[in-house]
User: Fold this.
Amino acid sequence: MKRSIQTHNCATFTEITLVLTDDSGIRDVHQRCFGQDSTTDVISLNYDAIPGEAGGRSGELFVNLVCAWQNARKTWAPSQELALYIAHGCDHLAGATDDTSAGRQTMRRRELRWLREAAQLGLLDKPLLIPADENRRL
Assistant:
């Protein structure tokens, strides 16, 4: 992830708050922040540093646990889907965008690389098995 932040030339984050929520909670955030009355998997919000205080930016990730549970597949545990959402949110915090097919593909490759690295470090609850249909999800 550090490489991604450097690639996107982002300010250092001094704090990232992770909020685990459900469909109702994320719908509320989606409505309040973006005017969209719908659920989603993850919402990333960036905040500038407070003037006069040392430090960098802060961010919030709102992650939909219900969505992660429902979208998990046979070879992909719900915890790994959740990890993907967190990686995706961090990618957005770092400045990445997925408003084009190429942007989505670049982000997904980077996020899956982060998950593979996390699995190699023993940070995921079981070995990472990328679902065969992953490329179709891009």
User: Anything to note?
Assistant: Residues 2-131 form a domain with the Collagenase (Catalytic Domain) fold (CATH 3.40.390.30).
